[in-house]
Amino acid sequence: MAKLSITRRLIVSVILAQVVLTLAVVALATYLTEKQLRDSFDAALHGRVMSVAALVRYSEDNSPKLFFDSSLVPPPLDRKHPDLYQIMGADGEVIGKSPNWDPDFRTPSSDRRIYWTVPYHEDQYRVVHLNNIPVLDREGPETATPPTLTVIYAASTEEIRERVWAAAIVTCLGSLALLAISTAISVWTVRRGLSPLAALASSAGRVSVNNWKLDAPPQARETQELVPLTDAMDGMLATLQHAFTSQREFLANAAHELKTPIAVLKSTLQLLLQQPRSAEEYRAHLEGALDDLARLEALTHSMLRLARAEQSQTTKRVTDLPLVDLANSCEQSAERLKPVSDSRSVRIDIRPNGPAKIHADPEDLELVWNNLFENAVRYSPAGSAVLVSISRSDHRARVDVEDRGPGIAEIDLQNIFNRFHRADASRSRDTGGYGLGLAIVKAMVEAYGGTISAESSVGRGTKMSVSLPINT
Amino acid sequence: MRVLVIEDERKLAANIARSMRESAGYAVDCAYDGEEGLYMAESNPYDLAIVDLMLPRMNGQTVLGRMRQAGNATPVLILTARDDRESIVALLNSGADDYLTKPFDLGELIARAKALIRRGKGHSTAILKMRDVEIDTAGRRVSRRGKPVTLSAMEYRVLEYLAHRKGAIVSKTELLEHLYDFNWERFSNVIEVYVSGLRRKLDDKNGELIQTSRGQGYVLRD
């Protein structure tokens, strides 16, 4: 299928409009020319009538008889065709006529019109029929009623038609020339007008994963119609670049994070094979290797969980999910963590301030609390308590998790939600973390349209605040 | 030989240390963050430092930079999980002698460590020769006049260190510093025991090969 071309369509419509306009101009010009020529022809015809009427005189013998002096007849209106005329007296008697007068030429005098156009000898003749023309010669006998004349005068209109035709041809040719010029100009203008689009397309073609910047040419940036397009493209590219780089970063980080536990596992096994060892030693090393494997497994599980949480941000339809009571959900998580918290002698103290329920997948919520509580428990000194307070305002539920741990330095606080970030690598590796927990929590909370923030002061503890919208 | 391992993944550090002790007979100290590692590198004479790049407190690149700035010429082998060309080029340019990407092979790590130590002492081959004694540092074998000599692990380590520094006077303290890590107790007289054992096994009863420089230490004469 042929592509629609804006250039072609614009040019074709401009040309069509111009052709119509040209035709209208030619038609109007022809009509006006013809009308003007005909009017002046009619006036000339009228003048001829008066002229021939003036040639009717009384005879010298003072009788009331009128005669026509044909020696002074003016030249014919049409140079090629002699005019026809007949002059009649009041009683209808013929006073004079042209030599070529055709008796058939009489026109119906009943008609009120005085001008006609009639076909004659394969030609069009304009005829004028005037009654009651007074005789100009005042030297005649005294009569009660001055005599009047009736004149029929006809002339060929061929010359008019020729002149109209000539005028039409000249107008036509002139208009065609103008049409050609204006077509050329509009083609050039349309092409030139659309050139920023082509330039924009070529710069858009240069965008790649290595070059995310749309280097739009200034002519495209300055074209009003293209501004929405370039703005939209800039926005789209920025979003894409962000998504792309964060995915690439994730992949690089994931690969990086996987390499260390693999290195541990590999070195453990190689060390074991380095020399013959006792059965107990083999056993101890293999158990160590299994521990390493378990950590690798946990890490891959976390990565998948994070990828899923980030993906679900776009797919979740919250109101389809069951209503979950936040206090219940927190208590279940605390119960699950009991072995860990007990072993560290840390209490998880849940204080709900009134009921707060939200639509959510219970497993998602549990994942959020598990991560937050586990972090809090992990960094809490023995014998202290992790305080979990639940409150709600009009449209939001809020869960604060506070610990009495060592706190997080200001510089690290900005990064704790970043994937693979660790405030202190050696410490959290001791405790088995891989810096993914808080990133998962953040992605999950954001999937529900919520927010998470952290406050901390070094030496006094950390407070994580989750705020979730209550959808009804 | 004494090696410093700076690696925050404790288990990996422990594996490297144990493997080096077992298969190369090196004394190994471990540090678990950059600051600690730099402090140890500055306060002890090491024959090699194995430094992880991603370290808490101070990253490996900074540790390396500070060491080189302070004029510390200890060979440094970098461990990295990154294998992009630019960061490796940058590392080598800033004074690293070699690198390995994680996950690496322990055998390869030890072979590279041995090569770095050897070159650090000015030798390009794994076999050191003086008079009619031959020391194969790769296989840890010693022979005199073509006949193999069986040495204890510590005797070998004393001989290897002296051979690397042949012609120079090596004090007992230097020997102790290079042959023991922090986990070992130091008794200066053990060195005398090892040297006399070496002289006996190498048929060097008059002390012509391993000469005693009274009050200063020992010299291995070519």
Give a written overview of the molecule.
- The complex is a heterodimer of chains A (472) and B (222).
- By secondary structure, chain A is an alpha+beta fold.
- The longest helix of chain A has 49 residues, at 6-54.
- Chain A has helices at residues 6-54, 158-205, 218-221, 227-274, 279-315, 326-336, 338-343, 362-379, 410-413, 425-430, 437-447, and strands at 56-58, 66-68, 84-89, 94-97, 115-120, 123-134, 148-156, 323-325, 347-352, 357-359, 385-392, 396-403, 451-457, 461-469.
- Chain A is rod-shaped and about 170 Å long.
- In chain A, a hairpin with a 4-residue loop joins strand 3 and strand 4.
- Helices cover 42% and strands 22% of the residues of chain B.
- Chain B contains eight helices and twelve strands.
- The two termini of chain B are 21 Å apart.
- The model of chain B has no long low-confidence stretch (mean pLDDT 85).
- Classes of the chains: A alpha+beta (472), B alpha/beta (222).
- At the A-B interface, helix 4 and helix 10 of A face helix 1 of B.
Topology (elements, then pairings):
The complex is a heterodimer of chains A (472) and B (222).
Chain A: H1 6-54, E1 56-58, E2 66-68, E3 84-89, E4 94-97, E5 115-120, E6 123-134, E7 148-156, H2 158-205, H3 218-221, H4 227-274, H5 279-315, E8 323-325, H6 326-336, H7 338-343, E9 347-352, E10 357-359, H8 362-379, E11 385-392, E12 396-403, H9 410-413, H10 425-430, H11 437-447, E13 451-457, E14 461-469
Parallel strand pairs in A: 9-11
Antiparallel strand pairs in A: 1-2, 3-4, 3-7, 5-6, 6-7, 8-10, 11-12, 12-14, 13-14
Helix pairs in contact in A: 1-2, 4-5, 5-11, 6-8, 8-11
Chain B: E1 2-6, H1 10-24, E2 27-31, H2 34-43, E3 48-52, H3 60-69, E4 76-80, H4 85-93, E5 98-101, H5 106-120, E6 127-130, E7 133-136, E8 141-144, E9 147-149, H6 153-164, E10 169-170, H7 172-179, H8 188-201, E11 210-213, E12 217-220
Parallel strand pairs in B: 1-2, 1-3, 3-4, 4-5
Antiparallel strand pairs in B: 6-7, 7-8, 8-9, 10-12, 11-12
Helix pairs in contact in B: 2-3, 6-8
